[in-house]
Amino acid sequence: MSSAFAIQHSHIASQPVQAPPPGYMILTVVGSGVSTGVPVIGHLGLGCACEHAVADPSGPNCRNNISLLITLPRCDLPDLPVAQTGSTTAAGTKDSENDGGNSRGGGAAGAASATAFRPSHSFFAAERAGNYIGTKPVAHILIDCGKTFRDAYFKVMIRCNIRTVDTLLLTHGHADAVAGLDDLRDLQTMHMVSTGDWVIDSFVPTYLSPSTLKTLEKSVDYIIRNSVKSGHAMSTPSEHAAQLAERQQQREAQAVANGTAHKEGGWRNIGIRRSTALDLFCMDEERPLRMHLPITATAATAGGTDAASDLPFYSFPVEHGKGYVSMAWVFGHVSHIPATSMAFLQDLVKIDVLFVDCLSPSGRVSPVHYCEDGMMDLVVALKPRHVFGVGMHCALEHFKWMAELQKALGSQVAAGHLRAGEVQCVELSYDGMQVLLPQ
User: Fold this and answer.
1) Burial bucket for residue 213 (CB in 10 Å: 0-12, 13-18, 19+)
2) Contact 296, 309 (CB under 8 A)
3) Cis (ω within 30 of 0) for the bond into 39?
4) Is the CA virtual torsion 371, 374, 375, 376 positive or negative?
5) pTM for the full model?
6) For residue 39, which of 54, 26, 55, 24 has the smallest C-alpha distance?
7) Using N-to-C axis directions, what is the helix angle for 398-414 and 372-382, rounded to 10°?
8) How far apart are alpha carbons 382 and 343 in whole angstroms?
9) What is the DSSP letter of 341?
């Protein structure tokens, strides 16, 4: 993995949203906070980060549930004519002026903020398939869809012009990861037929563990009933294609057998109640595994035309408290897969960017999350170039703890646990932060 990348330090609302160039991807922090979100109900007057979050709702202390958006350039769709994007300039200018050009981490993006925001729904032309940022086609992979998903969409995701979620990855079955699934129906394509029924045009490819699937079968059973189960996540394009062909034949045969094949849309017909509908793939909960995500095979490489090989994605299990497995991912060019998750991480080609739990300050511990001390231990063990904390509770005020983390990093260097410059930064992420990274 190359180490050459740029971090866009301004809040997403005060900078132009641009498509990643060929060979790159953009990571957008959709949410950076703990399950409660920040501000926390009942915490006003306690002197924590909630005070700052209420005073400045667009600031870095206001945190939605942890979620990450991966945006890739596509080479299988045409660029849009410039004329199709010109109508949003005035609206974008107005929105950016109202934002005030607030910078969240320093940097020079403010000069371009006057045309930063192009409202997403003005691009939702029925005749155009796929996602676009400006004139460029892109693919969006979303990690987690928690209970603050709707707020996160209007705070962050709308500025990325998201029309559909191309692929969904779910870490676990808790509310902060899955409670927004109902709202996802507004980001997938379906249409109503003459009978008033809804027909799914595109089920959202969704990768999750068997345990998470069992949770969803109880908590959002209506979504699972309208979804399709495609089996295990495959490692190669050929395995994936063969599996999908087999499953489609089975669905068509089942529709004939149960008498629903005559309906408009056949097995894609979900009835009169519009809901999210997923295409479910189960990941291995016990060992690291390479996953083939078909949407990544459309990504434009550095040459701009080669879509023959997909972006490598690996899932691996981690503990979210004793006995509870949550899934994590590595994406980009890595080496082989050893037996255990820690060995897997340590065996990677140098990690460019690590997003990791940082629930509470140094001196505090949690049975289910990394706090600052545990995060720093992991930094020493893995030595990633850039580290960003996520999942912060309100005890971590953004600006104060940005300084504290730099001191902690300096202490590790002074103690000889890290070489100077080996880890270039340890910081807190914030909602709307973007990282431009080579594929």
Assistant:
1) buried
2) no
3) yes
4) positive
5) 0.84
6) 54
7) 50
8) 10
9) H
What is the DSSP track for 169-211?
Answer: E---SSHHHHTTGGGGGGGS-EEE-TTS-EEES--EEEEE-HH
CB count within 10 Å of CB 130 equals 17
Residue 186 has pLDDT above 70, yes or no: yes
| DSSP 3-state of 219 | helix
Q: Are 157 and 145 in contact (CB under 8 A)?
A: no
- 97 φ, ψ (degrees, to nearest 5): -65, -40
Phi, psi (degrees; rounded to nearest 5) at 209:
-85, 160
pLDDT one-digit tens code per residue, 246-259: 999 999 999 999 98
pLDDT at 372 over 80: yes
Contact 205, 275 (CB under 8 A): no
Residue of 277, 61, 270 whose CA lies nearest to 184: 277
What span, in angstroms and rounded, lies between the C-alpha atoms of 358 and 238? 39
222 in the Ramachandran plot: left (φ > 0), alpha (ψ -120 to 50) or beta? Answer: alpha
Q: Can you point out the beta strands (E) in 272-424? A: 278-282, 289-291, 313-319, 325-331, 353-357, 386-390
| The residue type at 230 | S
Contacts of 321 (CB under 8 A, 6+ apart): 367, 368
Separation in Å, CA 236 to CA 7, 246, 308, 311:
32, 16, 12, 11
Instruction: Kindly state the tokens that stand for 22.
Output: 């060929």
Q: What is the mean pLDDT of residues 292-318?
A: 69
Domains annotated for the chain, with CATH where assigned, are 6-339+431-438 (3.60.15)
Residue 412 tokens, joined = 């590790």
CA distance 210 to 208: 7
Q: What single DSSP character describes residue 156?
A: T
Scanning the structure block, which residue is given the tokens 């190669």? 236
Note the pLDDT tens digit of each residue in 104-161. Answer: 343 333 322 233 344 433 334 344 578 999 999 999 999 999 999 999 999 999 999 8
Can you give the pLDDT at residue 330? 79
